[in-house]
Amino acid sequence: MDDKLPEDRSTPFSGSIHSHPELSSQATRGNTCASFQYDENQKSLCLASRQSTITEEVNADSLERYSFELEEKIRDKDVSAGHSYVGAKEDEGKAKEIRREAKLEVSTDVVLRNEKYLKDFILFCSIFPSDYEFTKDMLVWQWIAEGLINLGEDEIMEGESIRCFDTLLKLGYIMPAGYNHRIDQMKYRVGEEKVNAFIQKQQYLEPKFQKYLDTEEITDSLKVDRLSLAFKEIDCINFWTSKHCGQLKMLSIHRCYGSKMKNLLPSDLFLKLQALKILNLSHTDIMALPSSVENLKALQCLDMYATPIMGLPESMRCLSNLRTLNLDGCLSLRTLPKCTSMLINLRHLVLDVVGQLQSMPAGIGKLSKLRTLRAFLVGEDEGSRIGELKDMNKLKGSLLISNLENVSTKEEAAEAYLCNKQDLKKIELQWSDLQDNKNPDEEEILESLQPPLGIEELKIFFYSGGVLPSWISNPSFTEVVSITLYKCRYCDTLPPLGELPALKFLSILEMNEVVEINSLFCRRNQITNQHRHVAFPKLEKLSFDSMAKLEKWTGVVNGDFPYLRHLIIAHCGELVVLPFLSHLNSLLHVEIINCPQLSCLPEGGLPPTLELLMIKDCPKLKERCCNDQCDDWPKVARIPAFYINNQKVSVDSAEISEMIA
């Protein structure tokens, strides 16, 4: 490949929409990366390009070299600050600041020299616009798709890439950009200042240049292998150029705030882009992909995040190397193409399955390499039943299995082989909320859906069986930290969840048939003199909410709940008895809300550690502790923050009764 660059470098770079583009690891082989940016003033396109000749791999720096570089950096900063080096030493505050900044910069340089992949990762990120937001997962998957890291196994590559991401985050090359609550993930952006400073230091990169484009051919288009398009009006972009970038490996289209765009791409856009590995169309207005997408045989990552796309073409069956398909936020999408099951190398299928799809594509179980799938909609027809999960043993992270009412037998449920999916950390099992009657068959079905022992979070929604499964309280689940039981309306007893050794958060909501919570909630066997099991040894937060028939909570003994900090009891209309709580020496926060039959606080009082007690809509309890004349006042008088009906109760108040009436 001819590496000679065009000679016209006279025009200064202006009107840039996003951060400086740069080449990726392919730079070590002399390839170029370009960014086409619409210059509103010039009404033309700007082409920014850099080229590299070689990337030096540096071994670990010796202490002597580090010290030398540090002193040199201090001198440089001292001179730039307008002081002499000796003067800086005399000015102790200035000297400390200079040394701190110099040490940080030299330490960063050392890290970048010693880390094998960091430079390439930074160069890759530099092609993004400054306001472009991404998740850790998507960036890591793009690094892998680009071939910046090649360590064989997916798990090893992802692990190393995540480690490098965290390093760049600490160094400021990647910056936090907020939190996406819908997907429960952080958002990030490029640290533009740090990345630009890094680019300027790269001596093997030739200076950036511009080339204004109208309809003329780009003479060096065959050199461009990374192309970023940013626009005010998509009509201003000459797609002719991108169509003929035969070596293009990454095409990323970005829109500026308030920009407009045609909702269709040219039908022949992808005819000559056989080398394309990454196609990023996120946040654009594209409603459909052209059928020429079938030519992208090398494509590994397709990002359609937050586009109004309504469907994908069946020609995608040719994308046999596709590893990542991001359709999250595509609110008009209702189905996946029938050919989805042919994408046998797919690792990450990213979308809100429950919110976007009406059903799973038939035969999705053939995607045995799939690692990311947020949810599975159980269907009644062949090819969409729960057994499609059988061979998906590489699934990781979280998985919601919805529409479980479509599972008929325990044998069918067992075909999912949930217990074999060792990388899953969060599992949600959900039935329809429209079931009106108790269904004993669901008891055997749920018993057959035992998760892997390594899960950390479990949620069960709308279960209509009368008994929870035996496995839910198995102490072998040593990593379960959170359990939510929601609207298991026909269960009349709680299992001995106190035997789970790592459980920290427990929420039980709308289990309307439970009348009494007793010692069986804490432990499977009765306490004996020879053996005593501490119930809920790690639990920090416990919540009972909307337990319509609950009358008594007993069975708590001294030593149970040693780390409980938050206790919430809400909307339990028949509750009259609370357990002994005074021994809970970690308890800080108690809320008792809308329990109208509860007439007194627990016998023995509340622990001295309690910092906040909130009582609301509990008229009988209010009369017991609203002032120093009440029977339960000694139990609450020393609590720093005591509220009744959202009003703080204070010993120093002269008219407490009137204040809370």
UniProtKB/TrEMBL annotation:
<feature type="compositionally biased region" description="Polar residues">
    <location>
        <begin position="11"/>
        <end position="30"/>
    </location>
</feature>
<feature type="region of interest" description="Disordered">
    <location>
        <begin position="1"/>
        <end position="30"/>
    </location>
</feature>
<dbReference type="Pfam" id="PF25019">
    <property type="entry name" value="LRR_R13L1-DRL21"/>
</dbReference>
<keyword id="KW-0547">Nucleotide-binding</keyword>
<keyword id="KW-0067">ATP-binding</keyword>
<dbReference type="InterPro" id="IPR056789">
    <property type="entry name" value="LRR_R13L1-DRL21"/>
</dbReference>
<dbReference type="Pfam" id="PF23559">
    <property type="entry name" value="WHD_DRP"/>
</dbReference>
<feature type="domain" description="R13L1/DRL21-like LRR repeat region">
    <location>
        <begin position="386"/>
        <end position="511"/>
    </location>
</feature>
<dbReference type="InterPro" id="IPR032675">
    <property type="entry name" value="LRR_dom_sf"/>
</dbReference>
<feature type="domain" description="Disease resistance protein winged helix">
    <location>
        <begin position="127"/>
        <end position="175"/>
    </location>
</feature>
<protein>
    <submittedName>
        <fullName>Disease resistance RPP13-like protein 1 isoform X2</fullName>
    </submittedName>
</protein>
<feature type="compositionally biased region" description="Basic and acidic residues">
    <location>
        <begin position="1"/>
        <end position="10"/>
    </location>
</feature>
<dbReference type="InterPro" id="IPR058922">
    <property type="entry name" value="WHD_DRP"/>
</dbReference>
